[in-house]
Amino acid sequence: MGIEVVVEGLTKSFGKQNIWQDVTLTLPAGEVSVMLGPSGTGKTVFLKSLIGLLKPERGRVLINGVDMVNSPERDIYETRKLFGLMFQDGALFGSMSLFDNIAFPLREHTRKKESEIRRIVMERVDMVGLLGAEEKLPGEISGGMRKRAGLARALVLDPQIILCDEPDSGLDPVRTAFISQLLIDLNAQIDATMLIVTHNLDIAATVPDNMGMLFRRNLVTFGPREVLLTSEEPVVAQFLSGRREGPIGMSEEKDAATLAKEQLNSPPGGGISPPRRIVPQLEPSPGLPARQAVLRRKLRVMGMLDELPPAARRAVENGMAPAQEATP
After folding, report:
1. How far apart are CA 92 and CA 63, in angstroms?
2. Fold of the CATH domain 5-82+159-225
């Protein structure tokens, strides 16, 4: 099973530029979480901070008792082996075949024999649907296949925590749908804790158990998917509906005068979008085991039901009720 990741008061700056501050959240063990946010809100920086590749100025990231910010480098290095990281562009070596790219972590970090390496690599190649392409070079395959190869490489060391940095970037809607299903299928097969950074609304609506959003140097919210998907927070509502009106501008923040003008010109009711219909979460492909995270999440969320906003509470209850009993 995956490992819980506890983030407490994390603050990161580059020089005088504050990226985000006081981020506090918990990634539940074995569940799939998504971090949303407009471009430039530091989502990738957040991933790199979790794994200890960047050092925040304040806060802690606790994994199995190790603090990825403040613990000795030796402990951080060992704990990093629990992670699998899928980069935006796949980050494949252009001169190596897909097989050698995927085998690279095994050859670099283990003393396994080549026969064992081949068995593991081919299992992962099969898992991500790339059988028959393992001898191709990255330049000979599509962007979607490179993404899947990058994911296979992230899986070869049997990670208990998987971080995916914009797995949809550069992909068309059909390939994005395939990647979404693949991520759910992987969670069903290996029960790892997963965090996906994206600004793709289709992934956000169908994949995660939990959702958060970064904006204006703060974590707007993080919790069960129903909380964010029913949120009336202006920045969340704007982002989920893809509207121009709201706090998000071409630069990340609109100035006060622009926002005031929008509000003055907005129609009665403030131009608020109708409530979003919460689409069902993806289920594993036929033939795969049920996700173990589903029951754990149900017990966890039912335990916090009284703390949720009314709209989120109704969405949780509807989602967990049989279809014929669901209320509008």
Report:
1. 28
2. Rossmann fold (3.40.50)
